[in-house]
Write a structure and sequence with these properties.
The complex is a heterotrimer. By secondary structure, chain B is α/β, with parallel strands linked by helices. Chain B contains 6 helices and 4 strands. Chain C is globular, with a radius of gyration of 19 Å. Classes of the chains: A alpha+beta, B alpha/beta, C alpha/beta. At the B-C interface, α2, α3, β4 and α5 of B face α6, α8 and α10 of C.
Chain lengths: ~325, ~150, ~270
Amino acid sequence: MKLIKKEDLPGLYGYLASAGKKIFAPVRKNGMVSFSFTSAFEEIEMSYIQTKLSAKAAAFPKIEKLMKYTIQKEGQSYEPYDVEKFPGIVVWGAHPCDAAAFHPLNAVFTWETHDKYFTRRMENLLIIGLSCTSHDEFCFCTSVGVHPGDTKGSDIQLTPLPGGDYLAEIITTKGEAVAAAVPALFSPAPGLNKEELVTSVEKRFDHEALHAKINGMFDHPVWKEQALRCIGCGACTYVCPICSCFDIQDEGGIFGGLRYRCWDSCGFGHFTIHTSGHNPRESQDTRWRQRLMHKFSYQPQRQEVFGCVGCGRCSRNCPVDMNISEHLTQIMAV
Amino acid sequence: MDQFEPKIVAFVCNWCTYAGADLTGTSRLKYAHNVRIIRFPCTGRIDFLLLQQAFAKGADGIIVSGCHPNDCHYTSGNFHARRRWMVFRQMLENMGVEAERIVFSWVSAAEGAKWADLVNETVESIKKLGPYHKYQDMAKSLEEWEVTHE
Amino acid sequence: MNKLKEKAKELLSSGAVQVVVGYEEGTGGKIRPAFVSRPEDADKLLYNADCHHNLALYLYKHETKRIGKMAVVAPPFVLRSILILTTEFQLEEDSLVVLGVTPEEELIEFANFKEIETWVNQHPIGMKEKDREMLNRLNAMSRDERWQFWQNEFSKCIKCFACRGTCPMCSCFRCTVDYNAPQWISVGSHQLGNFDWHLMRAMHLAGRCSVCGQCGEACPMDIPVHLLSFQINEDIFKMFGSRAGLTLKKESLLSTWKSNDVENFIR
């Protein structure tokens, strides 16, 4: 446990930027806080409850260009984008939920096939976590096994102290390398109980018990009841730090173009439609069920991770208040 | 420096303007070569999305032309089109698109000379406006998109 | 709003309807759509000026229709939407009980859709002050500034289609943006894809918008997409003297025409 003074944070930022890292940090603009690429420490907002979009875009951007292709008389050619050129990205100031979310995301992209674009971005990623000192009623991390002071996923974890300085925990070898490069910024930490510094989020349900229960609920009527007001948009998916579904698209002209993948959502009616016109998930309740079952049944079963870290973004941003923790609590009660 | 030669796409109806443009040719009237004609059954069929596509694919100007009111081969296709263009043109204005880059016209099968004038005048006016870089830059957004632009 | 609750209870217990679509208190101080199918649950229904969801959205969805006959809590913008959907053959008069609610939070019952038509014509909907101000600001801008304004706004778009999902007029089973042969609109959320989407969406709503503003409310990225529809609505009124949602006549603006439509730009 170390201490970093608030006046030394720009020094840490400066070191990372001078090392060629792109710094992806919470920025307040247009009345919302969102992760953005920054060019100066001053742009960063260090006190926020939750950003609009999650930090997942650092490794799973909304558009990932895969390759260029040309179609000529002589034949076709294609040229994949060079992953070696991907910049190193620092996710600065990710709350424990966001930091923890990279693990289940990684589980998807390295399951059977190692996705080279994602894994390269992950290798190049440094995460500076930020423990939570406040939360709102949409936060429910403790119900899904994450804690407001968790260090899982972070390379260096900062915990705000009342005076404005930060406790700094160096978690991984990546984090150690950074700390070793700028040793002057870190001093020994005063004897403090970190538990007392972080906020306490009420636990609403137990995720292991939820997993055990939801596995057998595929045909339960609760989905129909809960999903009635769902409008079938992708807002919850796109703000989610773990949702990883994507679509692959080719765009270009007669003689060539490029292929990219972009975010997609199981909430859309046409997500599963077949060429024949048959749609295995023909109504919104089956799509809503898929969203919850995937996160709390299938992912734990197949990849031994939960698809939710309790950040609450889906609930905050849902146009019709499909509050996930409320619905999960209801599922535990039925 | 080479003089700017605008790319103009013309969406025309089969029955009047296309025949009119044909007449321009058979009458041996010369006109600017900047125009690429795309023939449609009727102006009523010209979806505004086609015009969006034309700009996105690099057109600097667009001509939309069909039968004069009351002359539509299908009775009312051009009347439907007229309303659509009234609304679409206003929508483009509201979104900041340079709507005068789209020239609307009625050219009948007998108006070969009008077609030649229309193309020449459109080319002249688009030359004055210059290339439509703003829209074309937007169309290049995917090509130039970098994750760190986010 | 006790009258509303009582009426809902009465309709449900008599079996006149199987579900009442209304508003209830949600989480975090939000209001949300509610589906009440038991008389004892009718007490959670509420109505106030914060109820912004356009519930007409649910009236033609097969998920809600399969419950049975519906009653809907209908503020003025829902009433207008009901008329538009009726003229577009999406709703049938006898499939629905309309529980009108006025801005003064009073319940009005309608014997038929004709009465709704009369009522909405007598009670014009004013634009919210902040929307009016934004439109004035946009109109005062140069065209280049407007271009820049919308480019900045659309750069926030993530193509979640909440604007589409929440709009009752987006009743197509398959949206143009979901077609890929031909691919009219890029799937990816890049600048052109976002621009094309919003232009297409606004055009497809032109002359059909009930001016509820719910698309803007729904946008998680706070893009004021509703202003596109609000502005063209004003322009259409100037050009054609009509507003959507005031008539049961089946004459949707862009599927009809007049031989004396006046424009000044066709050569």
